[in-house]
Prior knowledge:
The complex is a heterodimer of chains A (352) and B (303).
Chain A: H1 2-18, H2 22-42, H3 46-71, H4 80-93, E1 94-95, E2 100-101, H5 104-126, H6 131-151, H7 153-156, E3 162-163, E4 169-170, E5 173-174, H8 180-201, H9 204-214, H10 216-221, H11 226-252, E6 254-255, H12 262-275, H13 280-307, H14 318-332, H15 341-349
Antiparallel strand pairs in A: 1-2, 3-6, 4-5
Chain B: H1 2-32, H2 39-56, H3 65-95, H4 104-125, E1 130-131, E2 140-143, E3 146-149, H5 150-172, H6 174-184, H7 186-191, H8 196-222, E4 224-225, H9 229-244, H10 249-270, H11 275-289
Helix pairs in contact in B: 1-5, 1-8, 1-9, 1-10, 2-3, 2-4, 2-8, 2-9, 3-8, 5-6, 5-8, 6-8, 9-10, 9-11, 10-11
Amino acid sequence: MIYAYFLIAIAVVIGAQRLPDLRAKRVLFLLLGAALLCAPIFDRNDATFNVLADAGIFVLLALGLNIVVGFAGLLDLGYAAFFAIGAYTYAMMASPQFNLHLPFWLLLFLAAAFAALFGIILGAPTLRLRGDYLAIVTLGFGEIVPQIFQNLTKYTGGPNGIGALDFPSFFGRSFGQGTIPYYYVVLALIALAVFFAYNLRDSRLGRAWMAIREDELAARHMGINTTAVKLAAFALGASFSGLAGVVFAAKLSLVSPDLFQFQVSVLIVSMLVLGGMGNIPGVVVGALVLVLVNNVVLPQANTIAATAGLHVDFGNYHFFIYGAILVAIMLFKPEGLLPSRQRKEELHHAAT
Amino acid sequence: MHEFLAQLINGISLGGIYALIALGYTMVYGIIGLINFAHGDVYTLGSFFALTILTALGVSGELHGVALVVDVAIALIGAALLCGIAGVLIERLAYRRLRNAPRLAPLITAIGVSFILENVMQIWKGPSPVPFPAVVPNPSVMIAGVAVGAQQMLVVGLAVVMMVALQLFIHNTRLGRAMRATAQDRDAAQLMGININKTIMLTFLIGSALAGVAGFVSGVYYQSTWFFNGFGAGLKAFTAAVLGGIGNIGGAMLGGFLIGIIESFATWKFGGQWSNVTVFAILILVLVFRPSGLLGEAVFDRA
């Protein structure tokens, strides 16, 4: 059953990408949205919506990282750090930790702002570095942030993290233990994020990002303030991650430093690479496919192997899957599986 | 003072391992401008190969006399050779096709290779750290009131010998000259009749073999190895290469020892949980304020 959700969503997004008519595309997306909205009425299986909410969180992360990596061409290998900042914002301000119990909805905004602020703090001194050095600096940042959360035991609970986070409430009604409210929050955030991402892409700022991605020197000479524009990419990308972090923390009711390791950053990069960096439907599909594999296919493969009497833990193959995706796509289809037409042309006809 | 010296010596030994790894980063970066992210995992691979060879030789504890020399030599050379081959294969299969691709593509590929290697090693020896036999006896000598172990001397000695040999090779042989020429200008070197593919292969062979040596040495020194060691060690060795000035052999060595010493003091003064934060903060600071490193020349943007 869970497969049906994923496959339909993936098929609709791919189909919409193929349709030439803008109005038909919108209708298709609205239909998908309506179907997803109504789904919990017919299907009361909490586990399904748990997986779907997780998938949605990763879609949000992929959309955010896509702004930085896909639009502006800045490889960020420490994106999980902003996710951590968002999650810890909620954990520290809506839990018994400091006896602060700020509302979830306020913290969504606060966390997005915090994450954006840290994006600027990291970006301001480092964005003049060339691409691969920038990647390594972000990686260093991504290693430092969870380590600091782990070390400041007095404030963050150390390696155990912070638990018993508040349940969010909506007009006085608590979310409680169920997963369906989170599913709705995630759906709403994705709708917003997609809307923002498309508008950003087509804005003056978005065109500036793409100009920088293609040729920074030329972009600068066309009068683009490259530092400011790159900072905007970092800050906006980080803010998506902050939002995702709040939902993630609230849903899990727990944060701990090991949830935000380098593997998470690479997982999100893999989603982008798989789907097609820079293309919004592409990264959504990339995120859905990888969550489907990680959270559904591999656990099921384990069960099947166990009933067949085999002792294989497919959970051990996550690294291999991400690695193989990165290598294979870069070697054989660098534009990803679902690229924008423009990107495809660039990669196959441009002299590099 | 005593503690200070002891930490300094610890740091220098640790630095010897980082220096050996950093040489591989700096050589590959110098010649094809790639941050070979998988290099740290080749280092772990080295310790795994050495462990396998020692197990095959039936070694499980301290060795003495002729057996010590012979078995250590076999494990060391074997690990270096196998790592060299692994490095060449990685270059051939994953990086060569992307030599003229936009420059983030090979970096992303290198991260992929790193993940694949880590997963393969995790399946090979399991997810937990594995013990490594303490093959080299560890009698210590008192220097200025501080005990210096034979293993520490082995680490530093091997690192220095390797660096001197590498310098001599690069500056005094035809192949070394070909490497320098390729690093300076690949197209011009090719026009001068240098076989670029062979030269780049040689660079990967030597760099990865040095990582293999580092892997063996770290096994002897820590008496344990772990499939995930290469991630942290690789990042620190890369920091060392950047600190020394990437592309610069002497710089990698200097950076390696400095990072080892810094990490050792950070662990002493702030506790082990801050050592990584300190090293990565240095990485960020160096890249921001002096991207050419201590000994490097200005880095040109080779877009």
